[in-house]
Amino acid sequence: MFKNGLSYVGCTALLVLTHLSMLGVVYVRGNFESFTQLGLLAVAVLALDAVSVIAMLCLRQMTYTLDLMLAGLLGVSLIYQSCFGGVHLSVKHLITCVTALITCEAGFLLTRNHEWIRRKKPWIYGIIGVLILSILFFTDSQKKWITVGSFTIQPSEFIKPCFVLICAASIVELHKKVKILFFYVSKDTLFLCGMTLIVLALQWWCHDLGSLPTFAAIFGCALVGRLCYPRARISKTAIAILCVLGALVMMIAWFKAPEYVQRRLHADIWADRYGDGYQQCEALIGIARGGWLGLGPGQGSLCRIFAYDSDIVFATICEEWGLLYAGLTVMLILIMLMTVLMNPPKSYYHAMMTVGVTAAFLAQMALNIFGSCNLIPFTGVTLPFLSSGGSSMMTCGFLVGMLKAGQSPLFHHERPARKKKQPAGKKVSA
């Protein structure tokens, strides 16, 4: 007990020390007009730490590792977002950070009981259907956002955790198979494949090239999990057929892709530096300009580029803070994903949920970072926790809560009903 207490206090002290050291860098190298701006930022970051630590003390769960790492990552993100183009407290990003903490706890409480999730599968399908309909009827001409006043909502972000839950909850039904033509398949697998095709077609229609690989990665991990499921008993012939079909689908998608996709796949950004390749060219120049230690918080020029705080946020961080800071922050996210190996999941549901969440995070990180560095076509996907955006932050917080649920599962077994006692002196007739 004493050792655990010291460990918790030590991790909390490391969390606060990390943020204080970054605030010190802002004080020494930052571009701020008055100490009031820096003071507001420091108070907001330390207040966020205090709220996170107090909230953790009020919660009962098996581990607090993910909570501490999430709190540290959100503080780092708030400092980054408040320094782009000059030091100022980003109140909007502060609100989204608090929202991420709340949705993290909500994701933990809602997803740790696999039996409850399994009973609520029809509701999850319904939520996905409502989100798809909202994209079709409430977005403007193949755009991904719903505008409500000064706020924008991206429904496709909220589909991700629901899709992961469907993939995880339906794996238990693999032993309930029916024969269709020459194959034995489960009904849940057919529903999952149908939902996957609908979601992928929707992302293709919306020209959302970033979300499309993310959903494909989640479904790919779910498919591998089903092939490895002990009760699946899938023959080698079926596996070979699935591989061939997957390869054919990828080839058709590659050669029959629309013109705008082909243009991105074969674009020479330097030949069209002030056209379609403008963002990537400026991002590469910003990364090179920043070097290892950066120009200083608020000293960069990428803040004048569109989506500097979301789609190319990795390049913006590299320019102002340096490749070293950006790399360490990405490593922090990767370590947070690897903490699930400390307490292996106790059921196939929790294992598949953890794998699906990890696949979603890794796909988004790869698309954002490699796209900013021109290693792959630019897709415009956000970097988890570091990019601005309320929908993205809420979804990422909920997904971390699902990782917590995988480490702190809840197995609720219903007790058998007790037999009613017969009143004394009363005989039961034969």
What does the overall shape look like?
A: globular
Report the strand count: 4
Helix percent reads 55-70%
Instruction: Report the sheet with the most strands, covering strand number, pairing sense and barrel closure.
Output: 2 strands, antiparallel
SS content category? mainly alpha
Tell me the β content: under 5%
List keywords for this structure.
16 helices, mainly alpha, globular, two-stranded antiparallel ribbon, disordered N terminus, two-stranded antiparallel sheet, single chain, 430 residues
Describe the secondary-structure layout.
Layout: H1 2-29, H2 35-57, H3 65-81, H4 91-111, H5 114-119, H6 121-138, E1 146-148, E2 151-153, H7 155-169, E3 177-180, E4 183-186, H8 187-205, H9 211-228, H10 236-255, H11 259-265, H12 278-290, H13 313-321, H14 323-338, H15 348-372, H16 390-407
Antiparallel strand pairs: 1-2, 3-4
Helix pairs in contact: 1-2, 1-3, 2-3, 3-4, 3-14, 4-16, 6-7, 7-9, 7-15, 7-16, 8-9, 9-15, 12-13, 13-14, 15-16
Question: What would your notes on this structure say?
Answer:
It is a single chain. The protein is mainly alpha-helical. The chain has a domain at 109-407. It is built from 16 helices and four strands. The chain has helices spanning 2-29, 35-57, 65-81, 91-111, 114-119, 121-138, 155-169, 187-205, 211-228, 236-255, 259-265, 278-290, 313-321, 323-338, 348-372, 390-407, and strands at 146-148, 151-153, 177-180, 183-186. The strands form two sheets. It has a two-stranded antiparallel ribbon. The protein has a two-stranded antiparallel ribbon with strand order 3-4. Strand 3 and strand 4 (183-186) form a beta hairpin. Helix 3 packs antiparallel against helix 4 (91-111) and helix 15 runs antiparallel to helix 16 (390-407). The radius of gyration is 24 Å and the shape is globular. The N and C termini lie far apart (60 Å). Mean pLDDT is 81; it is low at 1-5.
